[in-house]
Each structure stands twice: as structure tokens, then as C-alpha cells.
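Re-run with default settings, no changes from the original entry. Doing this only to confirm the output is reproducible before filing.
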Amino acid sequence: MSHPTTEEAERYRDQTWRRLPELRVETALDAERFIESVGFCSTLTDARRPGPSLYVAVCGRRDAYMPRNVQKDPESSLAWFVKDEVMRRGRVYYAKLVRARSTFITPLLVPYFNALWGVSRKNEAKVLSVNARKILKVLRREWEMGTRDLRKESGVTGRAEFTKAINELQRTMKVIPSEVLYEPFTYIWSLAEGRFPKELSVKVTRREALKEIARAYLLGAGLTVPGELARVTGLYRPDAGLGNHALVDEGFATRIATGVYALADLSERLKERGQESGVEGQGAAFRVPSSGLQS
């Protein structure tokens, strides 16, 4: 049995991660379709980090590097504009989640991310910091509030303390930014359950969550190397391994070498696609499965 080469996997990623000029993301709708097809992605990471990225998809090429002066760079400016517009529309989940980096998640995957990183209401007092609970208490009363008012109402007035607490609430899938204003600059913060009540109420096991997040990543990546899934998702490497092993057990993936996994039908997918191009059909071909969530 022949195994796919690294270059074959890269060509597969060129299509799924939109690293081709004809597939680049130019609008919020393009971005939403892209996020739906890959399951989750970073917002403004570049070619130096693994995984799907909105910025790289806006550039439409493999060698996309974020410049130092982003204000004067048209691709960086477009990525920022699209990011803000997708956040406002609220059709996909957005927060600083994976390794405290801004991340988009398709609603179908929200239950799985929540199973791994979320905190139940009964455990908030044990897990969340005092400042995080103060902010959360205000938002549960008001539902949404700008940064300045939220700092004042919560009593967490120090900039560093507030930032640490709000990042904690994002990481535990309690709070999301729902709007950004530039004059003056501020974020509007909302309860995550306000925008995604159904998704955050679905209960799945940790084992299911590890498998489905691994599935979503492998669907977009085609092939993963040792430590890649853990680095992209923030999972511990043993947990990432459990997810990949589960995919092998069900025949969805093959284990090529220690820590190296590929889609079981990657070579066939590449042959079928051949020279196909164009945005339409990409999302359908690589749509993240609902895994019974809509049953």
C-alpha cells in the first residue's frame, strides 16, 4: 500500500485551506463558508504556524507572512475587516480560545470544544478566578456591555487584571466579543450562551470531543505529523493521540508512522479532485460532519 507524500498533503491543503489565488477569501460570506468547511481556524496567524488561517486564506497562497506594518498592507487590512464583519454577523463562534489566539469555530463543533474547554455553571466557583466571576455576574445581568463600562460595573478596573479575566472567560467559553467599535476603540462583550444557546447545551463525552476535533482537523489537513494536532488545538499530545487513534479504529484515518496520520482515502480524494478549482463545492466536499448533533 502506497502512502501519500508530504507534497500531496500540501496540495490537498492548498485547496481545503484556500491557499490558492482562485480560492482566496474576500468577503465575510467567503470566510463563513471557509470556516464551515475546515471546522475551526485561527484568524491572523501566518505560514509560520500550522493549521488553517483566515489571514492565509485571504492571501490565497502558502507563503503568506504577516508584515510588521499591518495598517498599510492591503491583505492584512482585508483580513482584519473580514474578521470583524464575521464577528458582528455572529454565525460562527469567535473568541480567544485555542492557546489564547483568536479562533473561529463552526457551530457544529462548538459542543466538542465546550466539552474540552468549557466550565459548567456548578463548577464556576471552583475553576474561575474571582475577577472572572465578577465580570460574568455583570454580563448575566446586562447580557452585553462595552469594555469601559464592564470594567467599571464589575470593579475589575485595572487594564491588566481585566484583560486576564476576560481572556479566562473566553478560554472557558463563557464570554465572546460580539462587536468592535473603533471610535473610540472598544469591544462589546456578550455571553456565549446568548448567541449559541443550543450548541452550548449539547452534552458530549470527552472521548467524542477528542475524536471529532481530530476528525475536523484531519479533513482539512489531509495528513498530520507528530505534535501538529496538539500544537494547533492546544490539546495535550496524549489527548490528541487519543483522538487520532479513534479515527484509525473506525477506518477514517490510517497510521503511517508514529504520530503520523492520514485520511484513509486521501490519495483517492486527490485523484478525484485533479485540477478542480473554484469556491463552489469546496465547502460541500469537505464539510465537517455533524456526528449526530442534528439527529
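Residues 88 and 179 are 5 Å apart (CA to CA). The chain has two domains: 6-105+205-281, 111-200.
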